[in-house]
Every structure is written in structure tokens, then in C-alpha cells.
Design brief:
It contains three helices and eight strands. It is α+β, with helices and mostly antiparallel strands. It is flat. The relative contact order is 0.08.
Length: 167
Amino acid sequence: MSDITVNGVLQVPASTGPTSKEQCKNGGWRTSGEVEARTVPARVDERGLRRSAGASAAPRQYWGNVNPIGPRGIGPRISWLLVKGFFWRMREKYVIRDFHPLVLFYALGFLMTIVGLGLGIAETVLRILGNEVSVATVVLVALLLTFGSQFTLFAMWFDMESNKDLR
């Protein structure tokens, strides 16, 4: 799609809309072939790329608008919302409403995996620094990681089984 410039102002579509008919503000109907246009002042940055007038040096653009949400800002926010929602659901559904052992499986799985990873990293660092590592410690790390992943997988399995009706 080529840019249309009129008197130095970039003309971009306001919205492409769905493929079905869409109701206009005046109460009439508009087909998907008609597109409203609005103006955004255009400028060219140091790399030769078109930018809107109020944009920073390297904005993210979508149809001439500057997107204020970047990948560095949205990733942690969505991850935090997912984790918070997961633990809220575990508490509400499997502890408060009706107790289910999968909460214990998730807790033991997360705990054993984190302890196993921490101990494994510590043992690897000690081995790199030249210290002797006993076989029993390596076996403990392997058992913690194995049991942690098994507890987590069984908890996921129980969770899927109890939510079969939601599919």
C-alpha cells in the first residue's frame, strides 16, 4: 500500500473495519469497501522513514499512529497479569470453593524445581571453581528436578481433567 500525501500531510485510513457491514455514526450503513480517511502530519526522520509529527526518534507505528506500548513494556505487564490470574484461580477454585490436591502438587512442583535449579547452579559454579562435588549431591539435584517436574505435570493434568467441561 503506497502512502498518499496531500500538501505535505500523510493521508491514512482511520479504520479498515470488518468485512461485514458496519454502522456509521449517522445511522446509515457503510460497506467494507468504503474507508474513512484522516490526516496525520508527516515528517521524515534521519533514516528516511516517515514518522508522525509528535513521534519520538524510533516510534512504533501502525497506520500513522504512534503505539505507546513497546515490547519491553508489554511483556512484563502481560506476564504479571497471567501469573496473578493463575494464582488467583488456584486460590479461588481449588482452595476456597472446593479443596483439590493439585494446589499441593503445584506448590511442591514449583518448590522442588526452584530448589533443584538453585542447588544445581551452585554445584556447577563450585565445580567450575575447582571444588570437589560429591555424587550424592548430584543425585539430589537430579531427584529434585525430576520430582519437581513430575509434580508440576501431574498438577497440570489434574487441572485439565477438572476443567474438561470448559472446552
